Amino acid sequence: MAAAMDWLPWSLLLLSLTCDTGAFYVPGVAPINFHQNDPVEIKAVKLTSSRTQLPYEYYSLPFCQPNKITYKAENLGEVLRGDRIVNTPFQVLMNSEKKCEVLCGQSNKPVTLTVEQSRLVAERISEDYYVHLIADNLPVATRLELYSNRDGDDKKKEKDVQFEHGYRLGFTDVNKIYLHNHLSFILYYHREDLEEDREHTYRVVRFEVIPQSIRLEDLKADEKSSCTLPEGTNSSPQEIDPTKENQLYFTYSVHWEESDIKWASRWDTYLTMSDVQIHWFSIINSVVVVFFLSGILSMIIIRTLRKDIANYNKEDDIEDTMEESGWKLVHGDVFRPPQYPMILSSLLGSGIQLFCMILIVIFVAMLGMLSPSSRGALMTTACFLFMFMGVFGGFSAGRLYRTLKGHRWKKGAFCTATLYPGVVFGICFVLNCFIWGKHSSGAVPFPTMVALLCMWFGISLPLVYLGYYFGFRKQPYDNPVRTNQIPRQIPEQRWYMNRFVGILMAGILPFGAMFIELFFIFSAIWENQFYYLFGFLFLVFIILVVSCSQISIVMVYFQLCAEDYRWWWRNFLVSGGSAFYVLVYAIFYFVNKLDIVEFIPSLLYFGYTALMVLSFWLLTGTIGFYAAYMFVRKIYAAVKID
């Protein structure tokens, strides 16, 4: 279940965060020192495919197994991501080479895949599955060498090295399916400087693999589990025929190289920014949008509003000025409580909860404490923070509910604690049933689901009640004008005051401020990429908050000028208009960027997208609502009301 934000004083902060950190290590991810010939454990994480969006356990396929399979204890984030970290039979020793070794099976007895196993392996290869391994918590990567100068001479060609996470399970060629059954591990170590008399220690700083497909007949194995790889390109790949049994060897080789990369910088390989410029372009674009909105606001507030207020406060010729302008005419109705105040305050409470959670998570991640090396930490932190932020969500919802003349605070608190989380849990549970049916490791285990329910009803619910109780007891927001007993008639509205037109107009600018970063977030979620640009993300978040607030103020001003005082719900809906564009972008991304054709992966994509859009609407709607509420109270406090 995975937005974006960074931007010139801030660039100095970003620069300081991306520098080598020397001796500072985040708790729990301190370096491990190895001596010569110490075992370096290779563990498997999962199998993933951007085509199916369904992760699987490593041993869901007939790979070689160790004598005893041991699963690593995982945190909440790892479980929700579908990680199932398990030991493997690869024997790797620090700075010790291995030419070729048979992983399982003897020289005269290769591994035999049954018809059913062959069919499953062939299916996974055709679905573009990748295998993810880790060594010393460092994920394996496949080196891709791209040549940028294709038209020039070979000598002038510039080699652009990129890394692909994991390695391909196999490949297809002319309707035949081939399995990568030989892995050439290339591990890089950094030799630590020590005093002369002490033995050298080593740290693993990079983990690469070159997967190969070598058929059984071309691999020569002996009784000691050693093997000889075929020379040159004479060998044929190992075909997997899904209609019959297949015999093959699983083999591997290990090569060590010394590296100048220090342990603190070892993740830089995986997180290389090849597109820094586009992020800065995104930020500059966003800043231009914010300045544009600020210009409109300045014109409205400084010129129009001051003129309006000055005219309204003149004692003479009041009737003429009241004919000219409309927002003062609705002063007796502008604070009239809307329909369904309990639901409105509950949704806004959940929006505050989300806002606090997202702000803290992005800020902490920007400081480097939730980096990809802390596997699952981001999602675990987000879950717990959302639970604990319930006290702030409850407080704001309770105070607003009392301001809107609500009386049933207990029911309101229950609604706040269960409405949005209930929708999220319901959608996730339905999707989880489909994932269970596919036997995917992405399915949340039943005990984890029970633990999440216990967190919801044991932590979040009581905290929401606590916050709601104190918020409801606190003095309600002070509205500067009284509400008339009889509602004023609303004149017929122009076509551009339609709610949907308002959503389209209000959403385009905040979405334009963040859509480039949104692409990188979608790539991280749906294409198994690392997202780590939390400095950029933090700046984009700030820009999003500012632009949502500004556009909300503009929209509520025009609505009140049209003498329509029913702004509460409308402003909440319209301020979240950028969520509509996120939905449109998600559909565009699905059609143009992803190669998903099956029903269940499509259902998962749109199910989780619906949750993202709902959460984003709550977040931006809440930001816009409170900005508009402060604006409305401010302008009506500035005029004299008879």
TrEMBL record:
* Topology with respect to the bilayer: Multi-pass membrane protein
Chain ranges passing through the membrane: 280-302, 346-370, 376-401, 413-437, 449-472, 500-526, 532-560, 572-591, 603-632
**What's the protein here called?**
Transmembrane 9 superfamily member
Q: Which GO terms describe its cellular component?
A: Golgi apparatus; membrane
> Is-annotated flag, keyword Transmembrane?
yes
- Gene Ontology terms: biological process: protein localization to membrane
InterPro entries, A to Z: EMP70 (IPR004240)
Signal sequence: where?
1-23
UniProt keywords (A-Z) are: Golgi apparatus, Membrane, Signal, Transmembrane, Transmembrane helix
As recorded in Swiss-Prot or TrEMBL, the protein's gene is named TM9SF4
The entry's localization annotation reads: Golgi apparatus; Membrane
What's the main place this protein lives? Golgi
**UniProt keyword Transmembrane, yes or no:** yes
Name any one Pfam family assigned in the record: EMP70
Similarity comment? Belongs to the nonaspanin (TM9SF) (TC 9.A.2) family.
